[in-house]
Amino acid sequence: MSEPFRLPPDIEAVSTPLDGLELCEARLMNDARFIWVVLVPRRAGAVEIDDLDLAERILLLEESVETGRRVRRIGEALGRPVEKLNIAALGNVTRALHVHVIGRRSDDAAWPRPVWGVGEASSWDATSLSLVQHRWKG
Amino acid sequence: MSEPFRLPPDIEAVSTPLDGLELCEARLMNDARFIWVVLVPRRAGAVEIDDLDLAERILLLEESVETGRRVRRIGEALGRPVEKLNIAALGNVTRALHVHVIGRRSDDAAWPRPVWGVGEASSWDATSLSLVQHRWKG
Predict the structure, then answer these.
(1) Number of domains in chain A
(2) Which of A39, A73, B49, B109 is deepest in the core (most CB within 10 A)?
(3) Mutate which of B69, B84, B106 to test chain A, going by most A C-beta atoms within 10 A?
(4) Contact, B86 vs B115, CB < 8 A?
(5) How confident is the model over A27-77, as pLDDT tens digits?
């Protein structure tokens, strides 16, 4: 695969950058109803998890777990502690490999259903967004 | 965690056993609209992926990847080749840790939406079920 990696434009359009990880770009979805991060491995052409080699798959797994921990930390900081993580690689709409890590609560807008396609996104206010970006780092 | 592992009753009620893997029980969902396998790690009390230790997480990852390959093989055998895998750990309804591995096609009953909560399940006929169980093995 010689083409350069590029963030999928339809993910870029609906998300805000967070500090990247070793393998993955990390993006906060522009939907304040959920603490919802999308990880995109910097591997051009990857679609399925087994398009990555074993070492990359393990990195993707561990970055997903680390992202879950950060999502929990962000939930605490926002006063919305996470009750359950949802971690998923779907890709029916955006083909390039990406993993959703979503902090769920029983009072959120989609519970207990999955978040995809439910209602309308609501924007992050500047204060909360700044808090998310700060707590993402540590 | 001293309690013995038990398959979650609500997963057991809607699925059929496949040969188990090293870490996980494997269950075929009783819904012939999708080739949909649920993996349940035999670890009593586990809810989130990071309730497993690193070695177990890697096993869960690799058994998910292997299940994806088998789902593709089953799709070929049924004349319904898989176009995209969906792999997800949600757990909003059934709390015990489990991973969904679903073979998706652009002509399936939920495409491009996720499968959860869409329409009514349709039963596997005995011939197809037997083919799935056989092709699961190799």
Answers:
(1) 1
(2) A39
(3) B84
(4) yes
(5) 999 999 999 999 999 999 999 999 999 999 999 999 999 999 999 999 999
Query: Which residues are within 8 A (CB) of B56 and not within 5 positions of it... i.e. 6 or more apart?
Result: B23, B41, B43
**Stretch (H or E) spanning A127:** helix A126-137
Q: Which domain holds residue B87?
A: 9-137
Contacts of B96 (CB under 8 A, 6+ apart): B8, B11, B40, B46, B47
Please list every residue in chain B whose beta carbon sits closer than 8 Å to the beta carbon of residue A23: none
For the stretch B79-116, pLDDT in tens is: 999 999 999 999 999 999 999 999 999 999 999 999 99
Full-prediction pTM beyond 0.95?
yes
Write phi, then psi, for A126 (nearest 5 degrees): -60, -40
Q: The CATH number of the domain where B34 resides is what?
A: 3.30.428.10
A6 touches chain B (CB under 8 A): no
How far apart are the C-alpha atoms of A101 and A90, rounded to whole Å?
A: 12
**Does the distance separating the beta carbons of A85 and B48 come in below 8 Å?**
yes
Instruction: For residue B91, list chain A residues with Cβ-Cβ distance below 8 A.
Output: 84, 86
